[in-house]
Give the backbone structure.
Amino acid sequence: MVQNISEKEALENEVEFLSKKILVLNNKLLESERAKTLFLSLVANNLNNPMSAILGMLPYLKIYNNEKNEEIFSTINGESLDLAFKIQNLITVAEIESGNLSNSYALGDIKNIVEEV
């Protein structure tokens, strides 16, 4: 009977120890999530501001009307728009992570969307 009591106490102590360890790990996880959210937000904002300036000024750089300049301008413009799209996706992820934006889903007919595009 004495052995059963000590085994029971040992199990209770182990459960208490593991419970405390789980709480510590949970707090570390929450801290990590907050750091990730802050990082995403800072990166998104620090990328978005210069990208907005570049996209705003890009149309004014088109000076010469020769074929080579058109090709360079078209490439820069296309890559800038692609980068801006990626930055906007990053900003959206940061907003979702921080809880400022919630996900929403909608049913749609993909065929109609493709035809519309």
